[in-house]
Design goal:
By secondary structure, the protein is α+β, with helices and mostly antiparallel strands. 25% of the residues lie in helices and 27% in strands. It is built from five helices and eight strands, in the order E-E-H-H-E-E-E-H-E-H-E-E-H. The protein has helices spanning 28-36, 50-58, 106-121, 136-144, 174-177; strands at 12-14, 18-21, 67-72, 78-85, 92-97, 126-132, 148-155, 158-166. The protein has a five-stranded antiparallel β-sheet, with helices on both faces. The longest helix is centred in the middle third of the chain and has 16 residues, at 106-121.
Length: 190
């Protein structure tokens, strides 16, 4: 199947601790925070500007193929976002977590779930990901997920790595990706 169609819409991808699903209006506050938090946006080109934030706060979130929220399975509370899009002409994986959920294995778990879904539902041969070279955690995670460096580039005034992974290649075992981190305390975890 290609990007023109999906197996089912809306997409809902479960994993051990997470659910990947479409965004809803009750995710708005977490979405705005994700796009404006300076820690979250450090390696993602910076926080969105004031006009974009206002538009996001006022407009419906809407459903767009390949752009989902990462939620805790137990509470359905949004903790981040993940996407598969075709902005560069090939399927690209992107993800971001709110700062209090970083370091708990959620990014790895979400990426494995989405890559598994992509293997089952897309006809693409490869998936790419772009990350800043100084974002050591993201580079290491992508390598553990089976991505290799295709080339370096400069975007947003920073050195980036464009990495790729063949979708036909088996996904790593969960045990090799350490997705068993603790569940953080906080409002979204309750």
């Amino acid at each position: 199947m290609s990007r023109e169609g999906t197996a089912e819409w809306p997409v809902r991808i479960p994993s051990a601790r997470l659910t990947i699903r479409e965004g809803r209006d009750d995710d708005r506050a977490a979405t705005v925070r994700l796009l404006t938090d300076p820690i979250t946006r450090e390696y993602l080109g910076g926080a969105v500007d004031y006009a974009s934030r206002q538009a996001l706060e006022l407009s419906p979130l809407g459903l767009t193929w390949g752009r989902w929220v990462i939620c805790l399975a137990a509470t359905d509370a949004m903790i981040g976002s993940i996407s598969l899009d075709y902005d560069r002409g090939e399927v690209q994986l992107s993800y971001a977590l709110l700062p209090e959920f970083v370091g708990c294995g959620y990014a790895a778990e979400a990426c494995l779930a989405v890559l598994g879904w992509a293997q089952a539902n897309l006809e693409d041969d490869t998936v790419i990901a772009v990350t800043q070279t100084r974002n050591k955690r993201s580079v290491a995670l992508l390598k553990r997920l089976g991505f290799t460096v295709r080339r370096g580039l400069e975007e947003f005034g920073a050195q980036q790595l464009l990495m790729e992974r063949h979708l036909a290649d088996p996904l790593p075992d969960v045990a090799d990706i350490d997705v068993t981190g603790p569940v953080p305390a906080g409002p979204a975890a309750r």
